[in-house]
From TrEMBL:
<dbReference type="InterPro" id="IPR002889">
    <property type="entry name" value="WSC_carb-bd"/>
</dbReference>
<dbReference type="Pfam" id="PF00685">
    <property type="entry name" value="Sulfotransfer_1"/>
</dbReference>
<dbReference type="InterPro" id="IPR051589">
    <property type="entry name" value="Sialate-O-sulfotransferase"/>
</dbReference>
<keyword id="KW-0677">Repeat</keyword>
<dbReference type="InterPro" id="IPR000863">
    <property type="entry name" value="Sulfotransferase_dom"/>
</dbReference>
<feature type="domain" description="WSC">
    <location>
        <begin position="243"/>
        <end position="340"/>
    </location>
</feature>
<comment type="similarity">
    <text>Belongs to the WSCD family.</text>
</comment>
<dbReference type="GO" id="GO:0008146">
    <property type="term" value="F:sulfotransferase activity"/>
</dbReference>
<dbReference type="InterPro" id="IPR027417">
    <property type="entry name" value="P-loop_NTPase"/>
</dbReference>
<protein>
    <submittedName>
        <fullName>WSCD1 protein</fullName>
    </submittedName>
</protein>
<feature type="domain" description="WSC">
    <location>
        <begin position="140"/>
        <end position="232"/>
    </location>
</feature>
<dbReference type="Pfam" id="PF01822">
    <property type="entry name" value="WSC"/>
</dbReference>
Length: 575
């Protein structure tokens, strides 16, 4: 009996050792494979920085009876993939607000999705048997062929769109058709270009060999190649008229023929006729004076800043009511103003490391859109947001310390993180609006609105209690540790876009033309303006919440004035 028991014990020992050895070998092989395929570098963030500790209460807060802000944690380990940052904050769940913990888990999910997309994108497209790939998956337009494409000297000179995750032929066609273009061209599997004339240089059909990111089996161009499809069939007259926007009645420039590069004289001229003519010429403005139609852009001669008042402009949306002479009617055509859409990375590393800092929900993405189109350079990010990258913010994927971008987005407010930057644009927005915007983003993404159920849940009070103190501490910490600051109020930027944008561009040490700034104003909304059903007269804040936020507003206003900055705008005045 003892002999049998000894044999069993010996067998179990061997089995245990074998299982342990196989498990260790499996883990080592997996780690080596991951390192080989993705070249992952694990970089440990700074430990023990002041941002890991509770933010001290300023004297102003103590006098006003404001409670101590919640502990804000600084980012912990950051995972770098080909110098692309995916931040994962390290939070102590016992001392951190529930919503910050939730944001941490959200970033972890984003990291996993990114790894999945990254590894799948590395698989080369098999060109063998490529002729089997189809051009007629779910799109309606005619396939015109494969053409050469140069991003610097574009052959399709109209609107440009990006979707590095879900681009399809149909999506590109519809986008071009809605803007009254006749052709839609796709390149690199994810880029969409629109225009009204076909490229001159044709390429071999097999050179358009990249599969669409959002549609397997369909071709979306190639490297330096465009797959061009017709979009004329999708342009219904009703849709075309719907996309024409009335801009107002303006004083005509002194030499109108020199101001506008294209014109048409037509008896019984209508808005539809003028808009269609200017759309085919790829101009964003259609200007009507009597029976004359002019096409062009906003320029220094015609900036569209002061409309004409008086009875002569009443009912001006009918072309027949324009009597000609000094006044003209201006319409926005579906065509995109492309004078400011070209962007690139800095050719040499920037000597000044500039932050674009804001509290979440304060309009950082919109400010980045304005800066990129005004300067022509990409902006970077301390984080990685796949939704922004997919829509053309290519700096999202660049390492935030590469200094190849004009400035870097950040929501951080710790001493260590602030002192890493040489200067910063500090963007401040009304905390009531910021809190609602960030709550909407949390539940409905960049473009949607949270539901009534979300607002009435227990998460909303927790969110306000946690984030309201962060709004105040973010500004106070940047005022305390920031080396060189330009304070910009979101509301001022929205109301006086050109003057404020000029200040921002000069702060970034970039020279731009007046026409480029006018182009930015013409494309001011960008791709992330929140849409959908917005509730009217909606007030989610209780009186207790208002009392808390109002004290923070007074504290921040006093701190700004103490640093010789202008105080908060009047609309911040406590409710």
């Amino acid at each position: 009996m003892a002999k049998a028991f000894f044999r069993l014990q010996k067998f179990l020992r061997r089995t245990q050792f074998l299982l342990f050895f196989l498990t260790a070998a499996y883990l080592m092989a997996g780690s080596l494979l991951l390192l080989q395929r993705t070249r992952v570098v694990l970089q440990q963030g700074p430990r023990g920085s002041p941002s890991n500790q509770a933010l001290p209460v300023p004297e102003e807060m103590g006098r006003l009876g404001i409670t101590e802000p919640r502990t804000l944690q600084s980012p912990g380990p950051r995972l770098l993939v080909h110098m692309d940052v995916l931040q994962e904050p390290a939070l102590d769940q016992q001392h951190s607000p529930h919503w910050l913990v939730s944001r941490n888990s959200e970033l972890r999910r984003l990291r996993r999705r990114w790894f999945h997309r990254f590894t799948s994108d590395q698989e080369p497209l098999q060109t063998a048997g490529f002729k089997a790939m189809k051009h007629t998956a779910e799109h309606k337009g005619t396939y015109m062929g494969c053409f050469t494409h140069d991003s610097r000297e574009r052959t399709l000179k109209g609107a440009v769109f990006y979707d590095l995750r879900k681009m399809t032929v149909a999506h590109c066609q519809e986008a071009c058709a809605e803007r009254a273009y006749s052709y839609a061209g796709l390149a690199y599997g994810a880029e969409c270009y629109c225009g009204n004339s076909l490229p001159a240089a044709a390429a071999k059909p097999e050179e358009c060999n990249i599969e669409c990111k959002g549609e397997k089996g369909s071709v979306c161009g190639g490297v330096g190649r465009l797959s061009v499809y017709g979009a004329e069939e999708l342009r219904a007259p009703a849709r075309r008229r719907k996309n024409v926007i009335y801009r107002g009645c303006f004083r005509a420039p002194e030499n109108i023929t020199d101001t506008f590069p294209a014109s048409l004289i037509q008896p019984n001229l209508t808005v539809e006729m003028c808009s269609e003519f200017c759309s085919k010429k790829e101009f964003p403005l259609a200007v009507i004076r009597g029976q004359e139609c002019y096409c062009g852009y906003p320029t220094r001669r015609f900036p569209l800043r002061q409309g004409t008042a008086g009875l002569r402009c009443s009912g001006a949306q009918n072309a027949s009511s324009a009597a000609g002479g000094q006044d003209c009617l201006v319409y926005q055509t579906p065509v995109q103003d492309t004078r400011c859409t070209d962007r690139k990375f800095l050719t040499t590393k920037s000597k000044v490391f500039v932050a674009l800092s804001s509290f979440p929900g304060a309009g950082n993405t919109w400010a980045r859109h304005l800066i990129e189109h005004a300067t022509g350079y990409y902006t970077g990010s301390y984080y990685f947001d796949g939704a922004l990258y997919n829509k053309g913010f290519k700096g999202e994927k660049d390492h935030w310390r590469s200094r190849r971008t004009i400035c870097v987005k950040t929501h951080e407010s710790g001493k260590t993180e602030i002192e890493m930057f040489d200067s910063a644009i500090l963007l401040i927005r009304n905390p009531y609006k910021s809190l609602m915007a960030e709550f909407n983003r949390k539940y409905a993404g960049h473009l949607g609105y949270a539901t009534d159920r979300n607002w009435k849940s227990k998460e909303w009070p927790d969110f306000v209690n946690s984030y309201a103190s962060w709004w105040a501490s973010h500004v106070l910490e940047w005022l305390k540790y920031g080396k060189r600051l330009l304070v910009v109020h979101y509301e001022d930027l929205k109301q006086s876009l050109i003057p404020k944008l000029k200040e921002m561009v000069e702060f970034l040490n970039v020279t731009v033309t007046e026409d480029r700034l006018l182009c930015v104003e013409n494309n001011r909304d960008g791709s992330f303006k929140r849409s959908g059903a917005k509730q009217k007269n909606f007030e989610p804040f209780t009186q207790e919440m208002k009392d808390l936020i109002n004290r923070y507003i007074l504290t921040v206003d006093e701190a700004l004035r103490g640093r010789n900055f202008s105080g908060l705008p009047r609309e911040y005045v406590p409710r």
